[in-house]
Amino acid sequence: MTLQSLSHLIKTRALSCAAVATVPLFTGGWFNWLTGPQSTFDTHGPVAKSQLDVFYVTLWVTGITFVIVASIMAYAMLKFRARKGDDDKAAIPHQGHGNPLIELSLIGLSVLALVFIAVPTLKAIWYNYDVPADQKAVAYEVNATGLQWWFKFEYPKEQIDGAGNLVIANELVIPAGRPVRVNLRTADVIHSFWVPKLAGKVDMMPNRGNHLWLQADQPGYFWGQCAEYCGESHAVMRFRVIALNEADFAAWLAHQKSPARIVAADAKLEGPVAAPYEFKNPGRNAPGWTKEFDDAPFVAWQNQQKIETGEDPALIAQGRKIFQEKTCVACHTIRGHEGVGSTAPDLTHIGSRTTVAAGLLENSKANLHRWIAHPNEVKPGNKMYVGVPSVGGNVMTGYLNIDKNTGERAIDPETGKIVKDHITVTDAEARALVAYLHSLK
Ligand code: CUA
User: Fold this and answer.
1) Helix, strand, or coil here: 147?
2) How many Cβ atoms from other residues are within 10 Å of residue 398's Cβ?
3) pLDDT at position 123
4) CA–CA dist 239, 174 (Å, integer)
5) What was the pLDDT predicted at 391?
6) Closest approach atom of ligand 1 to CA 231
7) I need a surface site. Which of 108, 168, 300, 391 has the fewest CB within 10 A?
8) Does the C-beta of 230 come closer than 6 Å to ligand 1?
9) How many Å separate Cα 230 from the centre of its chain?
10) Model-level pTM?
11) How much distance in Å is there from the Cα of 147 to the middle of ligand 1?
12) Are the C-beta atoms of residues 329 and 319 closer than 8 Å to each other?
């Protein structure tokens, strides 16, 4: 291949690559990128808006600089390029030592451009640091704690007799139109709290109290994500933020503070019992939501607050019993029922949440079944699956009982054999647990 045909080949390849690369800009990919559930371009509150404004100022200043510099460079390259017939042995042209006026002007312009970026950046940093002083009186306050791999949300203003703060998991409900200060903590490693459409992102650091504030201008449903690598299931450590108007928020708080719903085994409910749902394990990494939910998650959230039709009281009572027998009660709290543990998500009103497994799966019967029966295929390494070795040497039973130090199956120190008291869940038991958990509205 001659040098000329090689250069022609490179040129045509480069052109077709560039053409292919621009296709998404003019098709759905571009618009989805701008408005998708985790897009920072589709802001819904003042904090995210101020962060986007800084991005645009920076983009314009650097973009204009790029165009000017690249144009001058392209002009020089074309004008002074080697031409056919040029004498390649000619002496190099006279070398100048610069033009002081141009150089000083360029330094001045660069400083000006940096100042142009720095002023709005510093203003945004101050603005984003904490709730503005004139709005502190109306601000709401919550605590968010990151754990491998889920989020715990506490409401210090909502005290429950005998139980302290109102605690929920993975779905943070806030009042719309009001600033919310979020105190950020972690129970283990570094996590990062990020709600792309509202604000972000600030790290949750061990032994350090961080905070941020955010505000949703209108009621809505927003995606959140841990944004700091925190272990094998970091990418699936998600959460949701639901913003409600004042009346709905007050009603939601009152309901969440109430103890868990009780359905007696012999309760007479309206209508016939629903037929059993289909369940087939979709396997590792299978998506966990339907298009209907994805298209209208806020409507799904509102529907999720209602008691389901076709409940089976006997199955629900059976599920409550299995929840004790399988030792779920040791890690999960269900206020008013048997659950008292606090190392895992509070499940008092789990049936009213739209997602399970830290914002990863839509809270449908089949998905909850999948999470209970095959936890490690949904969220690898989670503590429900591997168990929790505690300080006193006792192992909190999981599905596998992995020894934290060796990474192997836990061994009983007295018999030297694999710990056999791990959790097992049959299909029938999972169905009863799903019926019970979904009854907890
Ligand atoms: Cu938590 Cu990444």
Assistant:
1) strand
2) 23
3) 96
4) 13
5) 47
6) 2
7) 391
8) yes
9) 13
10) 0.85
11) 8
12) no
Give, to the nearest 10 degrees, the angle between helix 365-373 and helix 427-439: 130
List, in sequence order, every residue forming a beta bridge with 362; answer none if it has no partner: 355
Does residue 146 have its Cβ closer than 6 Å to ligand 1?
Answer: yes
Ligand 1 pocket, 197 CB below 6 A? Answer: no
Atom index in ligand 1 nearest the CA of residue 234 equals 2
Q: Is-contact 395 387, C-beta < 8 A? A: yes
Question: Rounded to 5 degrees, what are φ and ψ at 326?
Answer: -85, 10
In DSSP terms, 409 is beta-bridged to: 402
3-state secondary structure of 378: helix
Closest protein CA for atom 1 of ligand 1: 191
> What residue has token string 């250069």?
7
Strand partners, 165: 159
Q: Report which residue type is found at 411.
A: I
Side-chain-facing half-sphere of 408: CA atoms under 13 Å: 6
Cα–Cα nearest to 326, from 436, 416, 410, 406:
436
Distance, CA 226 to ligand 1 centroid (Å)? 4
| Distance of CA 80 from the midpoint of ligand 1 (Å) | 54
- CA of 355 from ligand 1 middle (Å) equals 18
Q: How confident is the model at residue 89 (pLDDT cuts 50, 70, 90)?
A: confident
For residues 382 and 387, give the distance between their C-alpha atoms in angstroms, rounded to a whole number.
Answer: 8
Highest mean pLDDT among 15-29, 142-156, 393-407, 410-424: 142-156
> What mean pLDDT value characterizes the chain?
89
Q: Which atom of ligand 1 is nearest to the CA of 227?
A: 2
Distance 117 CA to ligand 1 centre (A): 31
H helix or E strand, kind and range, residue 355: strand 355-356
Locate the ligand 1 atom nearest the alpha carbon of residue 190 and give its number.
Answer: 1
Ligand 1 pocket residue status of 228, Cβ below 6 Å: yes
For residue 272, how far is its CA from the centre of ligand 1 (angstroms)?
44
How far apart CA 246 and CA 138 sit, in angstroms, is: 12
What region, left, alpha or beta, does residue 271 occupy, with left being phi > 0 and alpha being psi -120 to 50 degrees? left
How close is the Cα of 229 to the center of ligand 1, in Å? 5
CB atoms within 10 A of CB 128: 19
